């Protein structure tokens, strides 16, 4: 086991990471280049299955992505047996609106995806599919009630999505959320929410999480599939530049205020009713922008992101800070 890991015994797929961190799957942004770089740097890399978008009649892109990631990491491990890559994860959106779910589950099982991350619902058949190929299933939750339901339905571990996380964030303080879950659950527990430095990563473990779940800092990496304006906005923004709203997807999410201004809205005076929105675009100002593509998500921790780096350099920086923080508290 990694000497920096907590006392709890983690599943093989989550143990022995060089930095105790899982990269969150970022909609649109996470791609094979980013995942491979994250895994080679010694953390779990991940992507949403729905990022592998296909047009009618095109080959199945998810299959091609899994083939490339699997084969490239295998080659890397053969060349670096003393410092192998970490395993990768695929995020499945379990909501009934995902018409690809059954097909994507079958593809992931065939490619023996080692870590399955489920969102927007907990379904036993997805957990069973993960187990059928030797994988583990982690479910993201925003409160203790959903955590209990996920474990009851067969999830192996939990991702506590606390206040301050990017994208669809929860409303609860990480201190309260981790404490409530740890009262009854002793399995793998990850924390999401404003983790952008090694000190924050260590703090997550001190609270009771096993690993940090880090997303927003990876937006501003060279491999990320984010436009340059998005990356630059992350560099130029801090916690006060984030607004939480249900307006764009119907689920509360954290978004960059400047991106909301860019679509003609005042982020400090957003309406609560979508029918009241006037975007200032198109005839009558009614052309609705696309969440994530035009209204950009990010978490409260982006104030620590100052440069666009290769993903491996970002992981190395957080790792150095984490080890220094460990040394500092042991003095």
Description:
The chain has 331 residues and is α/β, with parallel strands linked by helices. It has ten helices and ten strands. The strands form two sheets. The chain has an eight-stranded parallel sheet with strand order 1-8-7-6-5-4-3-2. β5 (136-141), α5 (144-152) and β6 (157-161) form a beta-alpha-beta unit. The longest helix has 19 residues, at 61-79. The protein is globular, with a radius of gyration of 19 Å. The model is unreliable at 1-5 and 281-285 (pLDDT under 50).
List keywords for this structure.
10 helices, alpha/beta, 10 strands, 33% helix, eight-stranded parallel β-sheet, two-stranded antiparallel ribbon, 331 residues
Describe the structure concisely:
The protein has ten helices and ten strands.
